[in-house]
From TrEMBL:
Pfam families: Transposase_31 (PF04754). Signal peptide: none annotated. This is Recombination-promoting nuclease RpnA. Keywords: Hydrolase. One of its GO terms (molecular function) is double-stranded DNA endonuclease activity. It comes from Candidatus Cardinium hertigii. Residues 6-201 form the Transposase (putative) YhgA-like domain.
Amino acid sequence: MTGRLKHDGLAKRILSDPIAAQEFLNHYLPESCKSLLDFTTLKIEKESFVEDDLKQKLSDLIFSMKMKDNKEVFIYTLIEAEVSPKYWLSFKLWKYMFLLLERHKTKKKSKLPLVLPIVLYHGNSPFNSPRNLWDLFSHPILAKEFMGGDYQLVDLFSMPDEEIKQKAHLGMLEYFMKHIYARDMLALWEKFLDNFKSCILLDKEKGYIYIRNFLWYSDSKLSEDTQPVLEKIISKHLPREDKEDIMRTIAQKYRDEGKLQGKLEGKLEGKLEGKLEGKLEIAKSMLQKGYYIEDIMLLTGLSRSHIENIM
């Protein structure tokens, strides 16, 4: 190991000299790159991004140069000190390059510098490691196609509502997310349920996963005194036999967000089927919000006489 470290140190000592570094880079950089660079601006960066457990195996040199149009470009050089090639070297290069780019990332819309990795290999066996990141994947061509280009953008902001409504069940999600910033959340619910009447049956088949989650999603935008109004809007558009189930969802939302409990004298624990005292407190709170007696009976399991006694 000591001998290899001496070899490694020799390469680093020599290439740390600006004259030697300029000669090395001028010889090995691609012509398309060299024609853009101002070699008189070359300097060695001090930062090291090699991990602690690799410092005895790899020695990194980072050179910075300005382009001829005064934009900065970084050349990242790894000196391979192993006697055999490392299979994951190209993966490590990418990781180090991203660490290098990380220090240039700002909140402003600035551009990142270019990074060109170079590996100087001096082992005593042929170099046969993958030369790029894509060759490390089981499907290199697909990996480069899927991961090397633009990411897929689902732009709801610019997507017309008519296009969204054509997507049936999926359209419910896209429509609601697009318009979630509306000030009048009750009007949004009315419009949403009118536009997706045919999709409600699809949602029913899946246990109303969209309706239930939309209730949770829009809750923070609704005051407590508008909750009974929302319940009536939803009940109007759902099959009658599903009304009780959705009402329980609304009550669960109250519990999850802590809104209903905040109006009780003490914190209620357990489920809706809990102690009678807790059910009476829930019924009292719902009466104050304007819920119908029949709806409170469905939700709490209390008898009409219990609720009328509260009144």
